[in-house]
């Protein structure tokens, strides 16, 4: 198993060193993921040879049943699933331990600049589904005071960057640049997390006032830090993306990056309606999320769904099957188009416009 230090691309701080124990634990988890790939490749060969998936293509429930039938006697599926679930479940706790080992040094690198400037709609505004322990992480998005740093410096650096296909930071830049106009004055990033995509928006449209909305205080604190380190300042708001409490018609671009697959379908519809409310007439929406199953091969669709289930992603299937064109149209948008920007149809971007008054 390789324990080479992964390369850290643009968009990440590169000065985070862990104590040897923490680093080797993170590298073990990363190497374990790589070690599972040959097992998954054998499963893929078997499924594709049997052609069972072709007959069920287009219907994810039938695809799952067909694969279960083919692999019913194959212990490799259970082993791969158990290994994946274990890996995901311990990933953040191990990153928290690694952080704690050097907390004296790392906490100052993780803390937001003083004074902390985050408007907060309070606990009552938090929807119940957000409390789910996404990715199996104990405590969910806010499970540690410095979860923003832990997730985005340690988990991203040691686990996501090495195991994810494509350039996960460059993808955010490309989505930001896909917005139809050359300039914007007021941009809102829904589900901004620690501000990885927010930063790309701010860089693509340097004249704009930028607002980030998220439900995780820990992530928002790190977003404030990221903005300060980039020499800028964003308005940060802790609120649900589907009910931000921000003034209507106060933005000309509302965007999001990998927010929708964290939400149940009724919330996705509300987010589009909220984006419509927030936009001025003629304003643009740019939402990017996971690839629809219909654009994937039967094997890939099966794998995405199986992986999401074993990776504690309860709403992935919804995001991969919902018709976002219909959702956008129902919310009132026009000029709706969709585009796959990278390999394997990801990022999958929906672009739409709020009509000028009288033209709807
Ligand atoms: C996968 S992260 C993406 C963060 C960021 N957009 C990026 O590009 O790195 C998803 C974020 O959505 C936030 N989130 C999930 N449901 C939300 C909701 N209903 N309202 C606001 N934020 C939400 C989570 O707290 C998390 O920070």
Automatic annotation (TrEMBL):
Residues covered by the Methyltransferase domain: 187-283
Keywords assigned: Coiled coil, Methyltransferase, Transferase, Ubiquinone
Listed GO MF terms: methyltransferase activity
InterPro entries xrefs: Methyltransf_25, Methyltransf_Superfamily, SAM-dependent_MTases_sf
Coiled-coil region: 46-73
Superkingdom as given in the UniProt entry: Bacteria
Pfam family, one: Methyltransf_25
One GO term (biological process): methylation
Protein name as annotated: Ubiquinone/menaquinone biosynthesis C-methylase UbiE
Organism expressing this protein natively: Nocardiopsis algeriensis
């Amino acid at each position: 198993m390789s324990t080479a230090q992964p390369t850290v691309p643009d968009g990440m701080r590169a000065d985070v060193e862990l104590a040897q124990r923490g680093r080797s634990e993170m590298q073990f988890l990363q190497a374990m993921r790589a070690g599972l790939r040959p097992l998954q490749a054998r499963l893929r060969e078997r499924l594709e040879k049997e052609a069972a998936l072709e007959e069920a293509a287009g219907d994810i429930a039938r695809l799952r049943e067909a694969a279960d039938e083919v692999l019913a006697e194959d212990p490799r599926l259970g082993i791969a699933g158990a290994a994946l679930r274990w890996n995901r479940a311990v990933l953040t706790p191990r990153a928290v331990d690694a952080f704690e080992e050097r907390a004296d040094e790392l906490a100052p690198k993780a803390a937001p600049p003083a004074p902390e400037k985050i408007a907060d709609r309070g606990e009552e505004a938090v929807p119940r589904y957000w409390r789910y322990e996404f990715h199996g992480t104990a405590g969910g998005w806010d499970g540690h005071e410095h979860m923003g740093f832990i997730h985005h410096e340690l988990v991203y650096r040691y686990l996501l960057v090495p195991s994810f296909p494509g350039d996960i930071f460059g993808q955010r830049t490309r989505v930001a640049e896909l917005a139809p106009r050359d300039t914007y004055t007021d941009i809102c990033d829904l589900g901004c997390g620690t501000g990885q995509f927010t930063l790309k928006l701010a860089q693509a449209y340097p004249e704009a006032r930028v607002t980030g909305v998220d439900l995780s205080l820990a992530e928002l604190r790190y977003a404030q830090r990221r903005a300060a380190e980039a020499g800028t300042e964003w308005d940060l708001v802790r609120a649900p993306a589907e009910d931000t409490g921000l003034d209507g018609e106060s933005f000309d671009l509302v965007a999001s990056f990998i927010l929708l697959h964290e939400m149940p379908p009724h919330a996705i519809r509300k987010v589009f309606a909220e984006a419509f409310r927030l936009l001025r007439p003629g304003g643009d929406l740019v939402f990017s999320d996971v690839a629809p199953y219909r654009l994937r091969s039967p094997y890939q669709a099966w794998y995405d769904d199986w992986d999401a289930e074993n990776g504690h992603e309860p709403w992935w299937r919804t995001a991969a099957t919902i018709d976002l064109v219909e959702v956008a149209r129902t919310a009132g948008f026009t000029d709706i188009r969709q585009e796959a920007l990278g390999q394997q149809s990801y990022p999958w971007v929906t672009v739409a416009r709020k009509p000028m008054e009288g033209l709807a």
